[in-house]
Amino acid sequence: MRRGFVAVTVLAAVAAVACGDGGGPAVVVEGTPPPAPYDGPLDLPTRALDEDSPQALYAGSGAAGRALECDGEIYHGGGPDGWSGRDGGGTPEEGLKLYFHMFEPEVPRHGYRVERRGADRVLYSFDVAGRTKVAVVVARDQKGRPGWGPETNASCDPAELPAEFTDASWYEIWTDAHGERQPVSRIHSSAGAEHCGWQEARFLALGRGPDAMTYVRDPEGVLEPGMLTAPYDGDVRMPADARDTGYRLGDRQLWLTDDRTTAYVRTPDGVEAWPSAKDGVGCM
Questions:
Q1: N or C end of the chain: which has fewer CB within 10 A?
Q2: Strands 270-275 and 243-249
């Protein structure tokens, strides 16, 4: 079920005649079908597994998950979910727009093309360099859900999406020492939540799952001291046993020691010590 490359990327195709709203970018573009589009069933059964793993995401996302062409692991997937009798759209394109309205997903909202069209389902894909990074299956007239609406959806790691999109997102994409964008599931950083008054702090997430670590830059002390394993220090000497991870965000370099309790961030001005957050720290 692997598929060939499309002839144009969505970034080049947004000017195509499509069903966009007003004068903004088109939600659906004409595009060029690949030589071998996804050829599996569009109504694959889904299973909800009580775990956070790529296997669980594939199980829960049906055909949408199978249609992805990720460089790494699947990042998000879900469905089916219901829309009310008043929500369903009159066309597949309206069903796709309903997906954005219902779930507010962290994916682009324009530049999709029809990958596959069936009698009562349509697969839409968002492509980057000819490879599907977001897939949405919309269905028509499901039980208790008249009209067109989203059935399953899946997406690759945000780092595989265009920089034009991720640069405006809440997370910051790190690179390796060679400038290659790193998966958000591996490393990313972001400002703290404004509604908790944490916007002056910065959180660095490293890894995913039970071994994940979160480090905090908090020069203003906006977090309570008990939330961190140690105070933030903006001017320290790099430990002798620290090693360069190769991860970069602009002119910042991430260094770690074997115990990983503190992240050392080298900047042009020196070295900062970002303590790790204690388990359960979050902003409600």
A1: C
A2: unpaired
Sheet of 131-142: strand order equals 74-78, 145-156, 131-142, 121-128, 112-117
How confident is the model over 215-246, as pLDDT tens digits? 999 999 999 989 999 999 999 999 999 999 99
Q: What is the pLDDT of residues 173-190, one digit of tens each?
A: 999 999 999 999 999 999
Q: Which comes out higher in pLDDT, residue 129 or 61?
A: 61
Q: What is the 3-state secondary structure (H, E, C) of the chain?
A: CCCCCCCCCHHHHCCCCCCCCCCCCCCECCCCCCCCCCCCCCCCCCCCCCCCCHHHHHHHHHHHHHHCCCCCCEEEEECCCCCCCCCCECCHHHHHHHHHHHHCCCCCCCCEEEEEECCCEEEEEEEECCEEEEEEEEEEEECCEEEEEEEEEEEECHHHCCHHHHCCCCEEECECCCCCECCCCCEEEEECCHHHCCCCCEEEEECCCCCCEEEEECCCCCCCHHHECCCCECCCCCCCCCEEEEEEECCEEEEECCCCCEEEEEECCEEEEEEEECCCCCCC
Tokens of 93: 């394109």
The tens digit of pLDDT for each residue in 134-158 reads: 999 999 988 888 899 999 999 999 9
- Burial code (b: 16+ CB inside 10 Å, e: under 16) for 60-86 equals bbbbbbbbbbbeebbbbbbbbeebeee
Instruction: Report the distance separating Cα 105 and Cα 246, nearest Å.
Output: 30
Question: Residue 68: CA atoms inside 13 Å, Cβ hemisphere, count?
Answer: 27
